TrEMBL record:
Keyword Transmembrane helix: yes
Keyword Membrane assigned: yes
Transmembrane segments: 7-27, 33-55
Gene3D superfamilies found in the cross-reference section: Tetratricopeptide repeat domain
Keyword field: Membrane, Transmembrane, Transmembrane helix
Name the UniProt record assigns to this protein: Tetratricopeptide repeat protein
Alphabetized InterPro entries for the sequence: TPR-like_helical_dom_sf
Length: 150
């Protein structure tokens, strides 16, 4: 729940920022000179890109959460079998062991979204966020009946 609140607050702050930046862009355009209109248009592009990025990330998170809920209902969420340090951090060797299991599971069932979901969690635990995101995107695509290139 804490992550959801943090995400919502961050998203709201970004929207406020985009509105402020957009209003500056409009003011620059209203000034009417060639330079200010050019800068105004450039400034307006930034909030558009930011809103698109925020929208895509929000959609990704919502779809991943739906998969997690579905897997939880099936009883298929991975059990936390990771060792932790005294400070609560995940032990790297432990994460590597679990990752090896999840990778083998995914290689055995490459078309099963569930194995890709569990592999994404293993990547995340091993602190490999880019691969975790790609694995989750593959799980989402497989669940939706789409195909992604490996």
């Amino acid at each position: 729940m804490r992550a959801k609140i943090t995400y919502a607050v961050t998203a709201a702050a970004l929207v406020v920022y985009f509105v402020l930046v957009g209003s500056r862009g409009v003011l620059l355009i209203q000034n009417g000179t060639l330079i200010t209109v050019t800068f105004g248009v450039a400034v307006l592009i930034l909030p558009v890109i930011g809103l698109w990025f925020l929208w895509k990330n929000t959609q990704f998170v919502r779809k991943a959460n739906r998969l997690a809920a579905e897997l939880d209902a099936e009883g298929g969420l991975p059990v936390d079998e990771l060792r932790r340090t005294a400070g609560g951090r995940i032990d790297r060797d432990s994460a590597d062991e679990v990752f090896a299991k999840r990778k083998a599971e995914t290689e055995d069932a490459p078309d099963d979204w569930r194995s890709w979901f569990r592999l994404a969690i293993a990547y995340h635990d091993a602190r490999d966020t880019p691969r975790a995101r790609k694995a989750m995107q593959r799980a989402i695509a497989l669940r939706e009946g789409r195909s992604l290139e490996a």
